């Protein structure tokens, strides 16, 4: 069965010797793609393209911003695309794991991702066929359709501030071409969560079936605007964008409570009074410290 997630993408770099797939990514709005920083590392001076397998088309892109901890990069397409963006989950991974283990007999939260590892010409698990295109750097081929594999997050899988440990469920290794891809919910009793993205897949060093997910909350430490795209229940995206601009502009010598007295902040005021943003933290720091 072909999966219909047109927002899944391949990150390509155009070298003199040919175009190379460096990893995966996913479209979050009409002009921005998320991937891992290490996927585009060392690509300065070369043309970047974002290829959407289901549309058989690519769009030129530039690096908007990036960070190494967490390992996140945001690419900006040179023009808006008609591709439907990913739906992002407002639920924390810990909440989804707890829900999954309470309603299913098998342990862990089941996710899926699409990656673009070098293959030997086999069919992909999404029903597409390898193109057989020569890769300029090794004996494998660039699979333009990608290989979708299952992932599982266990209840004890939170290994660090910016990562949850994952393992594959399809007897597949997690390989370099999977880094940067979206981890999206594949089995859940909560219908509204099905297909929603919870984070970025990052391959662990070495071979094997393990890696980690960088959650959406960590992406905001690199690119705060992603929070405007997540359907949080406590405020709509326009209100959060307004709050984000206020948080970013707080000077070091100003108490945030004075801003509340001066401005009509369009979010629940009690939440801000109990847990006010601190100078220098910005919006992402406030989100992290207030646990919203």
Provide an overview of this structure.
This protein has 292 residues and is an alpha+beta fold. β2 and β3 form a beta hairpin. The radius of gyration is 20 Å and the shape is globular. The chain is built from 7 helices and 12 strands. The relative contact order is 0.15. The protein has 3 domains: 8-77, Beta Barrel (Thrombin, subunit H); 93-219, Beta Barrel (Thrombin, subunit H), CATH 2.40.10; 233-290, no CATH class. The strands form 2 sheets. The protein has a 6-stranded antiparallel barrel with strand order 1-2-3-6-5-4. The two termini are 37 Å apart. 18% of the residues lie in helices and 33% in strands. The protein has helices spanning 37-40, 93-103, 216-219, 237-248, 256-262, 269-274, 282-290; strands spanning 8-15, 18-29, 32-35, 47-52, 57-68, 71-77, 109-115, 147-160, 163-168, 182-187, 197-203, 210-215. Residues 120-142 have low confidence and may be disordered.
Largest sheet: 6 strands, antiparallel, barrel
Q: What radius of gyration results from the CA coordinates?
A: 20 Å
Overall number of structural domains:
3
Strand content: 25-35%
By CATH reckoning, the class of the largest domain would read Mainly Beta
From the helix content, strand content and strand pairing, which structural class follows? alpha+beta
Q: How many individual β-strands?
A: 12
Question: How is this fold's topology laid out?
Answer:
Blueprint: E1 8-15, E2 18-29, E3 32-35, H1 37-40, E4 47-52, E5 57-68, E6 71-77, H2 93-103, E7 109-115, E8 147-160, E9 163-168, E10 182-187, E11 197-203, E12 210-215, H3 216-219, H4 237-248, H5 256-262, H6 269-274, H7 282-290
Antiparallel strand pairs: 1-2, 1-4, 2-3, 3-6, 4-5, 5-6, 7-8, 7-10, 8-9, 9-12, 10-11, 11-12
Helix pairs in contact: 4-7
């Amino acid at each position: 069965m072909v999966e219909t997630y047109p927002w899944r993408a391949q990150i390509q770099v155009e070298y003199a010797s040919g175009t190379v797939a460096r990893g995966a990514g996913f479209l979050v709005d009409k002009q921005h793609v998320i991937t891992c920083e290490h996927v585009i590392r060392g690509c300065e001076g070369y043309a970047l393209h974002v290829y959407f397998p289901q549309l058989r088309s690519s769009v030129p892109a530039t690096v908007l911003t990036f960070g190494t901890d967490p390992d996140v990069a945001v690419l900006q397409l040179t023009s808006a695309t008609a591709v439907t963006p990913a739906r992002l989950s407002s639920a924390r991974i810990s909440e989804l794991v707890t829900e999954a283990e309470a309603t299913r007999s098998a342990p862990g939260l089941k996710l899926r991702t699409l990656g673009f590892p070098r293959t030997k010409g086999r069919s992909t698990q999404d029903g597409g066929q390898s193109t057989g295109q020569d890769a300029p750097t090794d004996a494998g081929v660039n699979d333009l359709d990608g290989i979708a594999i299952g992932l599982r997050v266990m209840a004890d899988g939170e290994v660090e501030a910016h990562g949850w440990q994952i393992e594959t469920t399809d007897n597949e290794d997690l390989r370099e071409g999977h880094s940067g891809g979206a981890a999206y919910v594949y089995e859940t009793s909560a219908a509204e969560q099905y297909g929603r993205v919870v984070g970025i897949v990052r391959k662990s060093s070495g071979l094997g079936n393990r890696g980690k997910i960088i959650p959406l909350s960590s992406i905001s430490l690199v690119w705060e605007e992603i929070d405007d795209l997540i359907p949080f229940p406590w405020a709509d995206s326009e209100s959060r964008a307004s709050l984000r601009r206020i948080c970013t502009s707080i000077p070091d010598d100003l108490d945030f409570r004075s801003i509340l007295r001066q401005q009509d902040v369009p979010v629940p005021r009690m939440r801000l009074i109990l847990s006010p943003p601190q100078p220098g933290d910005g919006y992402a720091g406030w989100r992290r410290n207030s646990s919203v």
